[in-house]
Amino acid sequence: MSEATEKKDQELEEVINQEEKQAEGVETIENDSIEGAEQGAQAELSVEEQYEAKIAELEAKLQEEENRFLRLRADFDNMRRRNQLDREASEKYRSQKLLTDLLPVIDNLERALEVEVTSEDAKSLYKGIEMVYRTLVDATNKEGLEAIVAEGEQFDPNVHQAVMQESDTEKESGIVLRELQKGYKLKDRVLRPSMVSVNE
């Protein structure tokens, strides 16, 4: 083999080696690009997941605050209604204590009016007591005080207090036969139940 041929073979071999190296470099670059793209996609996906998690967390907090607001609003409405009812009850029963204190006075005046009088002086005193009694009863009635009906009524433990039992075959069992002490109501509230005797 001549030197010229050997030289050509060497040059050809060098060219082939260079092309192989270039091909390997291109393949390496392509692999690096693919790996970089995959890593970028993974990083982008991770950021998106983080955003979604943050959004879910904020939505949960928002829902919690909305529920808290609704509870506070309901509590406020309930408190306002209770205060309104308390004010109405206070206005409705504002004279309860005074009327309760006046009941013994009314009882004493009624007992005084049950006494029979014969002399003119006693009759004048009787009329004066009667006038005071009527004036007092009218004033208390204007405030909502009313006597509880008892005698002849069916016994009602809500407004009657049974202190004794009697027997009357002509009347039904449980009927109030006698009223021993008058009871009173202030509008729909019992101030004092009637003390009664009930038929067996």
From TrEMBL:
<dbReference type="InterPro" id="IPR013805">
    <property type="entry name" value="GrpE_CC"/>
</dbReference>
<comment type="similarity">
    <text>Belongs to the GrpE family.</text>
</comment>
<keyword id="KW-0143">Chaperone</keyword>
<dbReference type="InterPro" id="IPR009012">
    <property type="entry name" value="GrpE_head"/>
</dbReference>
<protein>
    <recommendedName>
        <fullName>Protein GrpE</fullName>
    </recommendedName>
</protein>
<comment type="function">
    <text>Participates actively in the response to hyperosmotic and heat shock by preventing the aggregation of stress-denatured proteins, in association with DnaK and GrpE. It is the nucleotide exchange factor for DnaK and may function as a thermosensor. Unfolded proteins bind initially to DnaJ; upon interaction with the DnaJ-bound protein, DnaK hydrolyzes its bound ATP, resulting in the formation of a stable complex. GrpE releases ADP from DnaK; ATP binding to DnaK triggers the release of the substrate protein, thus completing the reaction cycle.</text>
</comment>
<dbReference type="GO" id="GO:0051082">
    <property type="term" value="F:unfolded protein binding"/>
</dbReference>
<dbReference type="GO" id="GO:0000774">
    <property type="term" value="F:adenyl-nucleotide exchange factor activity"/>
</dbReference>
<dbReference type="GO" id="GO:0051087">
    <property type="term" value="F:protein-folding chaperone binding"/>
</dbReference>
<dbReference type="InterPro" id="IPR000740">
    <property type="entry name" value="GrpE"/>
</dbReference>
<keyword id="KW-0346">Stress response</keyword>
<dbReference type="GO" id="GO:0006457">
    <property type="term" value="P:protein folding"/>
</dbReference>
<dbReference type="GO" id="GO:0005737">
    <property type="term" value="C:cytoplasm"/>
</dbReference>
<feature type="region of interest" description="Disordered">
    <location>
        <begin position="1"/>
        <end position="43"/>
    </location>
</feature>
<keyword id="KW-0963">Cytoplasm</keyword>
<comment type="subunit">
    <text>Homodimer.</text>
</comment>
<feature type="compositionally biased region" description="Basic and acidic residues">
    <location>
        <begin position="1"/>
        <end position="10"/>
    </location>
</feature>
<dbReference type="GO" id="GO:0042803">
    <property type="term" value="F:protein homodimerization activity"/>
</dbReference>
<dbReference type="Pfam" id="PF01025">
    <property type="entry name" value="GrpE"/>
</dbReference>
